[in-house]
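Support reply, case 0932

Customer input (verbatim):
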Amino acid sequence: MTIRACLFDAYGTLFDVHSAIGRYRADIGIHADAVSELWRTKQLEYTWLRSLMGQYADFWQVTEEALRYAFEVYRIENQSLFEQLMAAYLTLTAYPDVVETLNTLKAQGVGRYILSNGSPMMLAAAVEHAEIGDLLDGVVSVEPLRIYKSVPEVYRLGMETAGVEPAVEILFVSANGWDAAGASAFGF
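Our regenerated output:
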């Protein structure tokens, strides 16, 4: 098998979704980890529900709605902290092995793309903050399709952007089991 392109999920795979809360752990208090987990869980659930209902909203709005829900559950009434956390989501920390992995693939001539539910604005900010833009051949958002992973059309968009066939030439990388399952069902 010859891998000509790697498609990476962004959130949870390249970028640590819990790093936003990590920066404000002291401000949130003892429930910081629970707030972070609930924020992420609701973010994903909202994308799945919106896809099923045909009620698309961009990932920034979904992220905001999910954080608002977590704040309500944990009775956090701090608008300034809410805004700081939303801003922090634009500058999530990249995992330590991201740069080395992308450099290795680049040296081997393998295409490197992000395929994400993230909105273009969010992805541009994350890529810029992580300083990995020059290591990527493209960043693909679901936004033009107005539907979220794990719908097959999303994976098809990634395949078409990379210009390679899924079963034999694309390696899909995701830390999210539901995403890996969707990609596998598509043929990656």
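We compared this against your earlier run and they match. Two observations from our side: The longest strand covers residues 111-116. Strands lie at 5-8, 15-16, 93-94, 111-116, 138-141, 170-173. Please reopen the case if you see a mismatch on your end.
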